[in-house]
Amino acid sequence: KAGVTQTPRYLIKTRGQQVTLSCSPISGHRSVSWYQQTPGQGLQFLFEYFSETQRNKGNFPGRFSGRQFSNSRSEMNVSTLELGDSALYLCASSLQGQGINSPLHFGNGTRLTVT
Amino acid sequence: EDKVVQSPLSLVVHEGDTVTLNCSYEVTNFRSLLWYKQEKKAPTFLFMLTSSGIEKKSGRLSSILDKKELFSILNITATQTGDSAIYLCDAMGENDMRFGAGTRLTVKP
Hints:
With 115 residues, chain A is an all-beta fold. Chain A has no helices and 11 strands. Chain A has strands at residues 5-7, 10-13, 19-24, 31-38, 42-50, 53-57, 64-68, 74-78, 87-94, 105-106, 110-114. In chain A, the strands form 2 sheets. In chain A, strands 2, 4, 5, 6, 9, 10 and 11 form a 7-stranded mixed beta sheet that branches. A 4-stranded antiparallel beta sheet of chain A has the order 1-3-8-7, with no helix packed on it. Chain B has 109 residues and is mainly beta. Chain B has no helices and 11 strands. Chain B is globular, with a radius of gyration of 13 Å. Classes of the chains: A mainly beta (115), B mainly beta (109).
């Protein structure tokens, strides 16, 4: 079974630009969650999608948005990029989703650098 | 506010040592606590704990949960250099999931 796939692996953008990251979950997994990881803040929850609906959301500004398609693939968009958005963005899929005792399966992440 | 605190943040040991990593949590309507190991990029699942006092074991790794005192520990015996990684603790509530900042473990030969 293929694992969680994230694209692109690396991305360099300048302040003010926008970016879209993609995540393909494990086949059969309907929940996709997104996390931001920085050395100082650890793993911060962005949002979770389940069956094309946003089910939970973390404390990030509205510049961070996402969506999920009918095939469970998900995209995350960040608009008006700031230097502080530089981070590793991890996507994770699970069978049933957050809060339902369902372990997460992580992708290798997208390393975003904002200059 | 929900929070998860891991300690220590960083640990350096030598091969063969035993280590104990700590995770304390405050999560509304707690459901389970999970441990992950992150070596390079993708964290990988280690354990899921839902009941107090029941030890989960996998080789040299073991973990236990105390729901009264709201903490969990992860033990690694006879450490090896391949155990070097960041260990993440994740507390799941009914509507929230919180990761700790992680413990960076370095095992020297």
